[in-house]
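Example with several molecule types.
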Amino acid sequence: MKTDPTAQTLSFVDFPGEFSSHTVAPYIAPDCEVHYEALKTGKLLFPNCAECHRTGPPNGGCCPWCGSEERSWQPAQTAPVIHSWVRYHRAYLPEFNDLVPYEVIAARFGDGPVLFGRWLADGVTPVIGTEIRPVVERWTDGFCGVAFAQKDAKS
Amino acid sequence: MKDVAIAGIGTIGFGKSPDLSASAMANRAFKAALGDCGLAREDVDGLVCHIGSPRGLDYDEIAALLGLDLRYASQTWAHGRFCGTVLQTAAMAIANGLAETVACVGVFRNTAFSRPGTKGFPGFDENFREGGGPHAETPHTGMIAPIGGAAMSFQRYLYEHDKTAEGLAAVALSQRAHASLNPLAYKQDPLSEDDYAAAPYICEPLRRLDCSVPVDTGVVVLLTSLKRAEKLAQPPVRLSAFQGLSGGPNEFVFGRPGLGIHQRDRFAGTSLGADEPVFAKSNLGPGDIDTLHCYDGFAPQVIWTLERFGFAPVGQALDWIQGGRIGPGGELPVNTSGGHLSEGHSNGWGQTVEIVRQLRGTAGARQVPNCRNALWATTFGDAILYEN
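Resulting structure tokens for the full complex:
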């Protein structure tokens, strides 16, 4: 489904508990910082290639299809749908000890990137193919990642 | 590559060895391999090792601690997926005159560390690679540990092919039935369908019994030219066709190509089957294989290997494996040692020594009758055809 990029300001949720992200946050290369800095303002931006005009994942310093390093950071043009999902019954990281069982969504944005994110709809089993809504998940130290909620959920 | 063969094999078995150093495990397996074929330590002039320190040993440690005088050495990245690559590298070194006899070493102390995916496991920092973790880990989302990627792929597989997960039980049950005939297997006690159904989920849709069993092990496989191997104590097992490990935007280590996990494109799953290079190079097809051995860190990898290499139609392997088809006495016995799910997670080395036993005709109660052609093949695309 096409969305209006100019209207996309994501809502925020706080990651449960008082955890610093420093042992779980990704390494962010300087030329990929835009994605993560934009999340702090509620914007979800992906790199759009200046050569082949395809939209790629937020990590990586070049276009995976044509190799160009020229790109602009654009709002997601399509709403994500659930591509797959899992439910963890074991916590491997202490940050998630109090959350099990918890679900992780693989969300596909059109023909572009796939992002993983925590599923925020407690008690609702994810359904593949369902349109969902990205939100910004904020950690105590300010790091922001993406999580997913039901399309029509209020928070 | 018809002029390279496995001459000797040695292993310390598969279990818990908390009191043994990695070098002691390597030494015992190395001596066993030399004794198996009648070679002497000084005959070994090449070494390729798998994973390395701290779970195992790096090539320079092995050379120094085992007193080897090498003119060729190599080592792979610290992941289980490179067993076939190690053997292929050794074979290429022999074929190109870089070494005459190469020791392929798989030594792993898996029980000495915390669980994979936890912060104490060696290589945890790999979760923060620019391209994401090696199994699609993304720690801040809770997507962590190798099982996450396998479970994510399997969930998508079930959706695309309108299947339920129940059929997957046949993998664990069949391999445990094989393992019950293998005195070296870590898990030999019988499994029932009720046992499987009662096993807890670890990362849904995968249960504990869909996961490999961590063990400590040491395996050494000695490769040399076929001409030389024919003069040694054991009948040579030839490496007759190869296919390299695949990579690219549509490849994910824990999923069949096209499932779109950790990838940019998705497409309908296709099976190359008899057109896969390993078959094309040998003029054989899936129907000519007497026993299949594959990487089974998680049970769905058996499903995807069967489909990728044309043993079962795409999307139908869960049905295809029912009725004992891959178990003892079945149409295609798979992982007859018990594989990683029951013999123990040896990163492919347990399967390799089992292939040699099967082709020598020394696999005991689990011997596949008239075994002539055995295939090592993986979800991630590499393969080796072995012949006696």
